Amino acid sequence: MFSRISSRYDLLNHLLSANIDRRWRARVVRHARENLRGGARALDVACGTGDLSLALAAGGDAEITGLDFCRPMLDLAARKTHDGGRVITYVEGDALSLPFADGTFDVVTIAFGLRNLASIEGGLRELLRVARAGGRVCVLEFSQPSVPGLRGLFNLYFTRVLPRVGGLLSGSRVAYEYLPDSVSRFPDQRRLAELMREVGFESVEFENLTGGIAAIHTGTRPSPLA
Ligand SMILES: C[S@@+](CC[C@H](N)C(=O)[O-])C[C@H]1O[C@@H](n2cnc3c(N)ncnc32)[C@H](O)[C@@H]1O
Predict the structure, then answer these.
(1) Which of 1, 73, 115, 141 to mutate to test the pocket of ligand 1 (most atoms within 8 A of CB)?
(2) What architecture is the 18-146+186-220 domain classified under in CATH?
(3) What string of H, E and C letters represents the secondary structure of the chain?
(4) CB of 112 shorter than 6 A to ligand 1
(5) Where are the domains of the chain?
(6) pLDDT score for 93
(7) Residue 73, ligand 1, Cβ within 6 A
(8) What is the pLDDT of residues 36-54, one digit of tens each?
């Protein structure tokens, strides 16, 4: 599915979100900033076309690795990175079985990726495993609008407008029907925070973005892992 929509992915992201997605990713970088200093190592899981990897690279002097299992997405990421004069290592791999040793990264991020994994808990465990003790993990994902009135309006847009426009422009209506469907099945803010605690994260917090349409969950890896 992601291979099919890769060539129109960035355009549709920015168009369908009225560019708000850029601000959301910038916010992730702010949450990770403290841990991105002094030659830190950061991993962006399910990096897709690399927008968050690039934002992390611009946010400090950290060594960035992006990982995704979709080669066409990675190729686009590599091209954008080269054109922007940045250096990021892109790795083809599975978020549920990350090809890195325990405790490798100071920062681990995942943006709009966790929802797509076959196991959310399994994905969270892998993010936690590859973070170093005290390392920061940031999860950016669609969530449940918390502002009264916004939920109905957003659901209307998400289930009626987005699949039509996304389908027309990407050629894959299925992908843009899958999006609202997968968001409706994804845990809400509190439940995701609970899941993070259950798999072993410490200091779990979340920030609602744009009235809860999306949220950033952060947590740290304790030392040693429970
Ligand atoms: C909605 S895109 C998000 C891309 C990017 N992080 C962003 O912010 O735009 C989801 C990405 O997750 C990747 N993905 C889904 N399941 C994966 C898995 N098990 N392992 C690695 N990547 C995966 C897809 O290939 C796709 O590039």
Answers:
(1) 73
(2) 3-Layer(aba) Sandwich (3.40)
(3) CHHHHHHHHHHHHHHHCCCHHHHHHHHHHHHHHHHHCCCCEEEEECCCCCHHHHHHHHCCCCEEEEEECCHHHHHHHHHHHHHCCCCCEEEECECCECCCCCCCEEEEEEECCHHHCCCHHHHHHHHHHHEEEEEEEEEEEECCCCCCCHHHHHHHHHHHHHHHHHHHHHCCHHHHHHHHHHHHHCCCHHHHHHHHHHHCCEEEEEEEEHHHCEEEEEEECCCCCC
(4) yes
(5) 18-146+186-220
(6) 98
(7) yes
(8) 988 899 999 999 999 999 9
